């Protein structure tokens, strides 16, 4: 089209040149045509840019409640309405931490479980534009705390779920249900979240594994070869996303979250029913009174409270990392593997593949202990130093950190190092493949985003068709060719004008 303009303009100038001698207005007409040419090109480019500019962005929203064993969190996600199927488009807009413990702790007063969510629901109402409320899906997924309560008492579990359901149904949002998600879902959707946020799903190769450490369970998930998944169907999840097939290995270890595993260690060390426990996994000088029932009432503890035991015992730290490792080792069972490879407790695990993102309590603990970017050997040394630091010194050094967290870091850090190395088989060489992360591109790592993307069908099985050029590329190309044609037009005008003038001089 522009080429036509140039040819037309050159033709006009030629004609004008011939008319020049007869027409006294020729100069003004030439300028007029040149100006018209410029206006035409500017109008063409402006129209092309404006026409292809995305319209003012409209956003859609989704809400997921993560009802974990230790607490409930509300995540609000936001994405541009017209781009919901593009990877990396959904972002975390708001996060609200529910005050108090996880919903499974309300088993003796189920009504309170629903009530505890109210403040965060009010925040959600304020954070989603009112006109979008009715079309905003709202999901609640409960994890290991509720899995344990279901094992203990199905009826109390139903009452707690009923209570949260009642509150969620009364919100202005599009309530989609509250349910206990399976360990496989928790692991697999954590993997989807990590890979969606790091934009790896469209590339089809080189995905990142997901390591999630909660309060009551822990998950490991990574992509593996199809033949590796054949050994154990219950550890296999397959996805087809953006035209690529993924064969995931996943396993959720119930009772191996950071709080329940501590109970396993305490039960292991109080078998004799003594009135004092000297625990190497707590700092020297740390001392507190614990009831036997707080340890033995968990469904994770299969042994009975020792017969000789009284009501409670004094839990006293001795701060010794090597001895703590031995305590931790005893809560793992490395015998009885019936597969080609196992992690622990007879659970199948194929050889580790690729990079891993470790989040939730992995991040809280390793970040506090400054173990996120060092070698495995240095981390072991740092851990030993933390464990052997007297409790009074630790408290002085970190006056603003919650005492419960502070007291448990020696145990939790030792457990994490043991789980990753002896449990999952990371070595000194593969240690650097683990990145301890909290957020990716501003959104928290965890199962909730993957869960919502799946339920709203926001990750298509096949890659959507895309225009051959991206918008920016298209506009740049258009501008470039228009400028080029304009320059050609100017040069042609100038050379014609010169030729015209020289002809006149000859005449
Ligand atoms: N040190 C430390 N621990 C934290 C912090 N926030 C939470 N935790 C603890 O880390 C553990 C894991 O927390 P989450 O990942 O929220 O666990 P959850 O989702 O409640 O538990 P699951 O149902 O097993 O997934 C729990 O023991 C929490 O009490 C923190 O800021 N610092
Ligand atoms: Ca969790």
From TrEMBL:
The organism's taxonomic lineage, starting at the top: Eukaryota, Metazoa, Chordata, Craniata, Vertebrata
Active site: 186 (proton acceptor)
Chief place where the protein resides: membrane
Keywords of the record: ATP-binding, Calcium, Disulfide bond, Glycoprotein, Hydrolase, Magnesium, Membrane, Nucleotide-binding, Transmembrane, Transmembrane helix
Molecular-function GO terms, alphabetical: apyrase activity; ATP binding; GDP phosphatase activity; ribonucleoside triphosphate phosphatase activity; UDP phosphatase activity
The UniProt record lists the keyword Calcium: yes
Subunit details: Homodimer; disulfide-linked.
Catalytic activity, as annotated: UTP + H2O = UDP + phosphate + H(+); a ribonucleoside 5'-diphosphate + H2O = a ribonucleoside 5'-phosphate + phosphate + H(+); ITP + H2O = IDP + phosphate + H(+); IDP + H2O = IMP + phosphate + H(+)
Residue intervals passing through the bilayer: 28-50, 474-497
Record's keyword annotation contains DNA-binding: no
Name recorded for this polypeptide: Ectonucleoside triphosphate diphosphohydrolase 1
Membrane-related topology note: Multi-pass membrane protein
Pfam assignment, any one: GDA1_CD39
């Amino acid at each position: 089209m522009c080429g036509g303009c140039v040819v037309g303009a050159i033709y006009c100038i030629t004609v004008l040149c011939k008319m020049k001698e007869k027409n006294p207005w020729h100069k003004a007409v030439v300028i007029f045509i040149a100006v018209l040419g410029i206006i035409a090109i500017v109008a063409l480019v402006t129209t092309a840019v404006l026409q292809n500019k995305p319209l003012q962005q409209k956003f859609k929203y989704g809400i997921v409640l993560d009802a974990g064993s230790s607490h409930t969190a509300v995540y609000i996600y936001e994405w541009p309405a017209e781009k919901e199927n593009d990877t990396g488009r959904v972002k975390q807009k708001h996060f609200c931490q529910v005050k108090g413990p996880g919903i499974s702790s309300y088993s003796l007063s189920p009504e309170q479980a629903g009530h505890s969510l109210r403040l965060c629901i009010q925040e959600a109402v304020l954070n989603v534009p009112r006109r979008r409320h009715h079309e905003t899906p709202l999901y609640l997924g409960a994890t290991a705390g509720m899995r344990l309560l279901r094992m203990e008492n199905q009826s109390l579990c139903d009452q707690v779920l009923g209570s949260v359901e009642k509150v969620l149904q009364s919100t202005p949002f599009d309530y989609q249900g509250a349910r206990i998600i399976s360990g496989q879902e928790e692991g697999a959707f954590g993997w989807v979240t990590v890979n969606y946020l790091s934009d790896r799903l469209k590339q089809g190769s080189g995905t990142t594994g997901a390591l999630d450490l909660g309060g009551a369970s822990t998950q490991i998930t990574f992509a593996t070869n199809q033949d590796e998944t054949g050994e154990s169907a219950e550890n296999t999840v397959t996805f087809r996303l953006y035209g690529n097939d993924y064969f995931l290995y996943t396993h959720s270890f119930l009772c191996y979250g950071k709080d329940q595993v501590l109970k396993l260690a305490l039960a292991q060390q109080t078998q004799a029913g003594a009135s004092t426990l000297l625990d190497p996994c707590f700092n020297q000088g740390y001392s507190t009174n614990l009831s036997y029932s707080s340890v033995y009432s968990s469904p994770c503890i299969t042994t009975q409270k020792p017969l000789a035991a009284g009501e409670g015992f004094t839990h006293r730290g001795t701060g010794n990392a090597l001895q703590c490792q031995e305590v931790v080792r005893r809560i793992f069972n490395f015998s009885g593997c019936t597969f080609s490879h196992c992690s622990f407790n007879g659970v199948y695990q194929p050889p580790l593949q690729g990079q891993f993102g470790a989040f939730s309590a992995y991040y809280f603990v390793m970040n506090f202990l400054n173990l996120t970017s060092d070698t495995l050997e240095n981390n072991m040394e740092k851990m030993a130093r933390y464990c052997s630091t007297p409790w009074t010194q630790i408290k002085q050094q970190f006056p603003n950190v919650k005492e419960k967290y502070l007291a448990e870091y020696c145990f939790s850090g030792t457990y994490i190092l043991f789980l990753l190395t002896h449990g999952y088989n990371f070595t000194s060489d593969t240690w650097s493949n683990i990145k301890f992360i909290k957020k990716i591109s501003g959104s928290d790592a965890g199962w909730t985003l993957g869960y919502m993307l799946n339920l709203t069908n926001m990750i298509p099985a096949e890659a959507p068709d895309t225009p051959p050029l991206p918008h920016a590329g298209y506009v740049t190309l258009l501008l470039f060719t228009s400028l080029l044609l304009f320059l050609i037009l100017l040069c042609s005008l100038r050379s014609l004008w010169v030729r015209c003038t020289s002809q006149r001089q000859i005449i």
